[in-house]
Amino acid sequence: MGIVPLERALQLAADVDLDLVEVAPMARPPVCKLMDFGKFKYESALKAREARRNQQQTVIKEMKLRPKIDPHDYETKKGHVVRFLKAGDKVKVTIMFRGREQSRPELGYRLLRRLESEITDLGYVEAAPKQDGRNMIMVLAPHRAVKASAVAATASRGGPRDRAAEESAAPAGGEAPAAGETAAAGETGPTADTSGQ
């Protein structure tokens, strides 16, 4: 539309029942746009919510074992590791050595290799076992297919609740500012460039 005086831009916005919104206040002359400001805020909030929902957060769970662990305790801990991997989380497995156990790191290494072989269908070793002081650490990560199914399951569980939240976030009829309010708040000069409707 080009460069027009501020009064003319406000009159144009009032004529089409839209708001005059300053989109680039630092430009010379300032750039303004004719739009429904309430609808614009609502759509930008929806986009931000969608971006947060699609964002993948990496969670690292930790499981601690001892080299002389009882078979039943080992199965319980392995069950926790399996549950974490199915949920799409990484697992840091730590073997804690005490006293004379520190002179036998092969016991911990063997235990970690056994765990690795038993969960190959769910995950893989992201960081190989390594000695770190009195502990031996290995990091397991879920396969892509397992992680994708966990993300899909989480999205399907939260579906109806998210739709209800989006509907409640819709702006009420009187929330949009009046035609002159937006431009007056950021007014920097007598002219405004209205570049679109």
UniProtKB/TrEMBL annotation:
Domain Translation initiation factor 3 C-terminal residue range list: 59-143
Keyword Amino-acid biosynthesis: no
GO BP, sorted A to Z: ribosome disassembly
Biased composition (Low complexity): 167-197
Function: IF-3 binds to the 30S ribosomal subunit and shifts the equilibrium between 70S ribosomes and their 50S and 30S subunits in favor of the free subunits, thus enhancing the availability of 30S subunits on which protein synthesis initiation begins.
Record InterPro entries: T_IF-3_C_sf (IPR036788), T_IF-3_N_sf (IPR036787), Translation_initiation_fac_3 (IPR001288), Translation_initiation_fac_3_C (IPR019815), Translation_initiation_fac_3_N (IPR019814)
GO cellular component: cytosol; membrane
Superkingdom of source: Bacteria
Subunit structure: Monomer.
Family: Belongs to the IF-3 family.
Source organism of the structure: Micromonospora humi
Compartment(s): Cytoplasm
Name listed for the protein in its UniProt record: Translation initiation factor IF-3
UniProt GO molecular function: ribosome binding; translation initiation factor activity
